[in-house]
Amino acid sequence: MRKIHIFDTTLRDGEQSPGVNLNTREKVEIAHQLEKLGVDRMEAGFPAASPGDLAAVNAVARAVKNVSVVGLARSREGDIDAVREALQGAADPCLHIFLATSPIHRQYKLKMEKHQVLEAAQSALRYAKKYFSKIEFSLEDAGRTEPDFRAEMVAMAIREGAYVVNIPDTVGYLNPAEYGAIFRHLKETVPGIEKVQLSAHCHDDLGMATANTLAAILNGADQIEGTINGIGERAGNTAIEEIAMALETRADYFGAKTGLVLGEIARTSRLVSKLTGMNVPGNKAIVGANAFAHESGIHQDGMLKEKTTYEIMSPQTVGFKESKLVLGKHSGRHAFREQLLEMGYTLEDEQLNAAFARFKDLADKKKEITDDDLLALLEERLADA
Ligand code: KIV
Ligand code: ZN
């Protein structure tokens, strides 16, 4: 089984979510939890962005012992120096340098020709090598970069000693077939590609970040980048928990696994949601409140007979206590009776039928029927008797 390295960027790309601002204490708390989750690398921030972020990255670097801590830098000496300062005291420091390579970014943002982009990245890598033994180089907007130039930039980064080369779909523009083909092409054509780890970094603008990342894995990606709960710029980044569980659940298909402690997923998700203030939607895959909840009678009946009828993974695997059978208008007698039994009520068939009829009346008026509603139903029945 191939191991896929997990590069967590919750504290950097994730913190770039509009409205999110983590202070040092919060970053360190999340970093400790990411360490328990077992990520391989964690990007703690962008030290050149502000003195506060530099201090926060330094606090994370000193706090975390078993995970490589990464600091982001543009291809500028000043940014690289800021990461040097921020990663002092880190057990396993890693510098992450990026430069945009796509025609749109070259023309409008950088106002640079291809050769200038190549030279700027090369000189940043040469400067960085004096201070770092582990360097990741990212081709920002690689997804919209010309294939030949993309390959040339990757080859240059390898020659200059990068340890990981990252191919971001910065604006979430590609589809899985296209993104996968980029990895295959690079793996097959770039000299020396076997010396580096190739990394996938996807954004979710078209809702394809997870699918694109999995396509990259199928086509040779060694590392994937993402965030907890998929938070990040605009529509966010690849959700790490989705990749981990896709690989776990379909190991037969992907033949690859992460080294994550899967039972820490729910706790990590809750902590990130609490400290960033970004609520997890109920229907969010893996960590949403409804991810293991069943409402319809047919599904509940199946679940009560055999859980694998409607669950492809168990809630316990990711750290939730149990599946939920939610009583609502679609629920059936089987789940209704089970819930009453759990609350300590055993009704005769006739009583059950009457209570179930009342329950259906109420369920037509209310989205979810709680235990208190059921108690009220039963009390009404006793009062009528
Ligand atoms: O999306 C992106 O291109 C990035 C880079 C800085 C890696 O976040
Ligand atoms: Zn990004």
Automatic annotation (TrEMBL):
GO MF annotations, alphabetized: 2-isopropylmalate synthase activity; acetyl-CoA C-acetyltransferase activity; manganese ion binding
Assigned GO CC terms: cytoplasm
Cofactor: Mn(2+)
Substrates-to-products reaction catalysed: 3-methyl-2-oxobutanoate + acetyl-CoA + H2O = (2S)-2-isopropylmalate + CoA + H(+)
This protein's pathway: Amino-acid biosynthesis; L-leucine biosynthesis; L-leucine from 3-methyl-2-oxobutanoate: step 1/4
Annotated coiled-coil segments of the chain: none
Domain Pyruvate carboxyltransferase: from-to ranges: 4-266
EC number: 2.3.3.13
UniProt keyword annotation of Manganese present: yes
Annotated function: Catalyzes the condensation of the acetyl group of acetyl-CoA with 3-methyl-2-oxobutanoate (2-ketoisovalerate) to form 3-carboxy-3-hydroxy-4-methylpentanoate (2-isopropylmalate).
Assembly notes: Homodimer.
UniProt name for this protein: 2-isopropylmalate synthase
Species name: Saccharibacillus brassicae
Gene designation per UniProt: leuA
Range within the parent protein: 1 to 385 of 515
